[in-house]
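Researcher: I'm comparing several assemblies side by side, and this is the next one on my list. It has 260 residues spread over four chains. Same procedure as the others: predict the full complex and return the structure.
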Amino acid sequence: MHKENNLSKNQQIIFDLINKSSEPLKAYTILFNVQKRGIKAPPQVYRALDKLVQTGKIHKIESKNAFVACRNTNCEMSKATAFSICESCEMVDEISDAKLNKYLSSFNDKKGTKYKRFNLEFFGLCKKCK
Amino acid sequence: MHKENNLSKNQQIIFDLINKSSEPLKAYTILFNVQKRGIKAPPQVYRALDKLVQTGKIHKIESKNAFVACRNTNCEMSKATAFSICESCEMVDEISDAKLNKYLSSFNDKKGTKYKRFNLEFFGLCKKCK
DNA sequence: TTACATAGTGTTATATTATAACAAACCTTA
DNA sequence: TAAGGTTTGTTATAATATAACACTATGTAA
């Protein structure tokens, strides 16, 4: 029996927290929130986050140094990510748009280079803030 | 006579450094390199960087926390930025592709939201590293 | 010219984000 | 059981970024 894609204890604790959050969580916010569950130090958090990002369970919002759960069944390896970010309320939504995804995944630059991975962040005002 | 788009002393020093660099520079690398020119403390660097980013003279590579000079005469306000990033040698190139730019600038998500700004980062291997 | 507003500067201290390094525990599979 | 990988716990510290305050320079408008 080989290893399932199951999460380890710390990974599960941290994934659960991020997954039930409606907004991106920062590493030290996570740390604070899981201390009651025995996770006491930054490396424990960052290690779990790294692993969750690698496996595509969560994504890092680079412009905010914060993490959201993946809402897209297709992006298992975080190869193609796109987000909309509200500049007013800080809300973040993962964009799941097949056409956009296809367009960018097959994008070649002028030198003909293809890429393995991309991350796209859109900024504007969300419906509520408009 | 109204104000030109000229840079202040610190802004100019820091822009010159970034502009002549072939690779993205980090804030503390910049600080180290401009100390001989009288810029001694982080806030001086970050303030100049903020202003240069706002005016589109430089861009921040979010995934690297590093800064590059704008190579694109069109993106004066940093509203539409795209980069190719080599995962091996860390080289960064600004992508200037009118079609891509147009496609993303006019992108609407499923809720019909338009965005003011985007930042796109492609990852892969550059020509040298392939 | 003076006076006001705005932007920029210099400085100290501190907040926030992230990793190094090492030892121990825990699974898996041979 | 032994070997190898991954996860954990821990302390310390590195790297990135901002708060706050006093002061200076510059542009604009009366």
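Model: For your comparison table: The first helix of chain B runs from residue 9 to 20.
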